[in-house]
């Protein structure tokens, strides 16, 4: 009776690294099942190529899974509602998508009764941590295999092995590693390995500021409970809005940037990115919620959502505190419903106006710098007198101390 190989589920992109992983795992007598999760970056042509490549590498079965809905509902929605921008500029892009991929890997592993899952991460980046932590949380009994990391193999060595086993692959050496998903495109390569230069404009796949139309474009975005529902009065799903704004923003050169930050492993890392939809929605949402949230709601929400973004980016999504913060975010968004008027022009996102039935900005009560119906001038003078009392007392105490010395 023929021995049945143990099953391993491999996160598969169809590129050099994961193609090598199939060959390596088969040599280790595993039955390799490949899984590709679409988080917003694959065309029909890409899907066909990846499916064909899986077969050519010798995988026994291939799954192509649509993860966009889960990604939007579980993660992207909270990035928008939380105005999450790492370092104040970067909407996380590819990182959180690894959580969805890991979740699907585990689901297929359980379905196929696999003994292990595998991914093609190296030992130098953030993705290895994201995959490993998520898999260990969701399925602690599954073995995790990482051929590229474990072997410390070079790309040239991978190519030689694939040629030996007659496995086709794209031999083109690229200057840039580009990851595309719903939240945006990340770009790493020559210039991002140091801190001075920037990748050329053509790498970003959007209009440069110089080539963008001279005449801008105004749009109106409707939000309901913190999430976008319409653009220019057209009802769309969140995924459709992301796709539409990515295309529109790209036309106007919007959403390009470079983020420098701390990696999970403790070193500094730099990545270029293009994220028109994410940046448009976050900026519009942030301005809208200023209308209906109080000073202290905004203050504490900003602090906690910065921490939330760090948990998402740094592979700690499954810490229970994440759900606690999401509960606060959801609570804060109950009345964040209204419209935002946005102008896109020459790389700029300009918020022109916003309105809501729940606005706390009421001209019937008070107009800044002019008049109000809530207090008198005499009452205002009294407020001004006592408002800075502790600052006044502290200044007097310091003055006495200096006189004594």
From TrEMBL:
EC number: 6.3.4.5
Record-level GO BP terms: argininosuccinate metabolic process; L-arginine biosynthetic process; urea cycle
TM regions (residue ranges): none
Molecular functions (GO terms): argininosuccinate synthase activity; ATP binding
Domain Arginosuccinate synthase-like N-terminal per the UniProt entry, residue ranges: 7-168
Keyword match Kinase: no
InterPro entries for the chain: Arginosuc_syn_C, Arginosuc_syn_N, Arginosuc_synth, Arginosuc_synth_CS, Arginosuc_synth_type_1_subfam, AS_cat/multimer_dom_body, Rossmann-like_a/b/a_fold
Signal peptide (UniProt feature, chain positions): none
Domain Arginosuccinate synthase C-terminal: 176-391
Keywords: Amino-acid biosynthesis, Arginine biosynthesis, ATP-binding, Ligase, Nucleotide-binding
Pfam families for this protein: Arginosuc_syn_C, Arginosuc_synth
Cellular component terms per the entry's GO annotation: cytoplasm
Pathway linked to the protein: Amino-acid biosynthesis; L-arginine biosynthesis; L-arginine from L-ornithine and carbamoyl phosphate: step 2/3
Protein's name according to its UniProt entry: argininosuccinate synthase
């Amino acid at each position: 009776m023929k021995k049945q190989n143990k099953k391993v589920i491999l996160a598969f992109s169809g590129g050099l690294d994961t193609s090598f992983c199939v060959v390596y795992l088969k040599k280790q007598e595993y039955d390799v099942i490949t899984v590709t999760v679409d988080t917003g970056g694959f065309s029909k042509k890409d899907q066909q190529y990846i499916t064909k490549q899986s077969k050519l590498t010798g995988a026994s079965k291939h799954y192509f899974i649509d993860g966009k809905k889960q990604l939007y509902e579980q993660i992207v929605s909270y990035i928008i509602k939380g105005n999450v921008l790492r370092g104040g500029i970067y909407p996380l892009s590819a990182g959180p998508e690894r959580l969805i991929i890991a979740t699907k890997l585990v689901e297929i592993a359980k379905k196929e009764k696999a003994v292990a899952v595998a991914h093609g991460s190296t030992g130098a980046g953030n993705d290895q941590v994201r995959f490993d932590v998520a898999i260990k949380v969701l399925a602690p009994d599954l073995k995790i295999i990482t051929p590229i990391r474990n072997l410390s193999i070079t790309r040239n060595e991978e190519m030689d092995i694939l040629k030996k086993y007659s496995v086709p692959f794209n031999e083109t050496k690229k200057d840039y590693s580009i990851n595309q998903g719903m939240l945006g495109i990340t770009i790493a390569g020559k210039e991002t390995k140091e801190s001075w230069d920037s990748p050329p404009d053509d790498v970003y796949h959007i209009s440069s500021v110089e080539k963008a139309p001279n005449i801008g474009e105004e749009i109106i975005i409707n939000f309901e409970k913190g999430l976008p529902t319409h653009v220019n009065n057209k009802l769309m799903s969140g995924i459709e809005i992301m796709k539409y704004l990515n295309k529109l923003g790209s036309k106007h050169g919007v959403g390009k940037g470079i983020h420098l930050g701390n990696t999970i492993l403790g070193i500094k890392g730099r990545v270029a990115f293009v994220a028109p939809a994410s940046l448009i929605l976050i900026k519009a949402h942030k301005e809208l919620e200023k209308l209906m949230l109080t000073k202290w709601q905004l203050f504490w929400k900003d602090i906690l959502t910065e921490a939330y973004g760090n948990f998402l980016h740094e592979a700690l999504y499954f810490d229970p505190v994440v759900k606690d913060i999401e509960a606060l975010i959801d609570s804060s968004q109950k009345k964040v419903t209204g419209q935002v008027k946005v102008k896109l022009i020459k790389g700029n996102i300009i918020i022109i106006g916003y309105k809501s039935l729940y606005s706390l900005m009421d001209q019937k009560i008070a107009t800044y710098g002019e008049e109000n119906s809530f207090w008198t001038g005499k009452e205002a003078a009294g407020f001004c007198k006592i408002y800075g009392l502790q600052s006044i007392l502290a200044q007097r105490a310091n003055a006495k101390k200096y006189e004594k010395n």
